Amino acid sequence: MKPSLIVHEICLTLQGESTQAGRLCVLVRLAGCPQSCRYCDTPQARPFDAGRPMTIEEIIGQIEPLQCRLVEITGGEPLAQPATADLARALIEHGFEVMVETSGSHAIEVLPPQARRIMDLKCPSSGECERNDFSNIEHLTPRDEVKFVLADRRDYEWARDMVRKYGLTQRCEVLFSPVCERLVPRQLAEWIIADRLPVRLQIQLHKYIWGNDARGV
Question: Under a CB-based contact definition with an 8 Å cutoff, are residues 87 and 59 in contact?
């Protein structure tokens, strides 16, 4: 039997986050997430039945006509589906540039090294901080990225301390992202400047373009 995944949506959009923000991108959003972040902005994709089964060949067949070589696999939590690594490998073999956005609670080493792995370490306000698997840090490479989504000063101080404790900026790009409508970007910018923290401030570009509740982007 061919491996399949439960796909919530596939759409052509602009990359809204990461170091690739602003680029034309195909978003492959998989269904299902075992976590319950308090600020989750894609609750519609959290149930594991919030999509339809598709084989890898069917997914690639839907991506090819979109004429875009950058593909991001996200969720939900993509690594909650075992075939995600197979999908990433198949996309790379077909000549796509692949990004995978995943939480810090699933093993990232299952993904092919050619993929750009974006690991979203959960801060205290998420309610999922205790599920972070810090052993993933040893598998980060310079092509990968670590993201912290911050809702308040406590989150900022926790993320700052993790950056320093694990030397994250020596391993890969580190992004600090304010929770939309909860932490003002200017405030986060001022904290980063005051601490001379060598991280990248990231704002969710897609929310500024299409709005906070937009779907399919």
Answer: yes
